[in-house]
Hints:
This protein is of the alpha+beta class.
Amino acid sequence: MVCVHRQSGRYAGHLELHPDRNELGGTLAPDHRGQGLGVELFLAGAELAHGHAGLPTVRAGTATDNLPCRRALERAGFVPARHTLPDGREIDTVWYQHEGTASTCTRP
């Protein structure tokens, strides 16, 4: 999903949802950082995951030293969660998850 700044109409960032992994990720354009837009980005991602993709839990990760991203995730209602790679290795990142009521519109 492409994110557009409401007032300027300019590209502000993007969001990716991976429903097969219950994960989302995104980034803001450098000139749109530090304005609280990361919170809106992750709130929109959680709504997309729960309300449209039918996921009760969605996760997002970031580097441990990316404090602005961590704050945005926390302000959007994500809570810390452990992350282990499929091969069993643990990596130096911080993972968060968001719980919500999943829509039934996409379930078989």
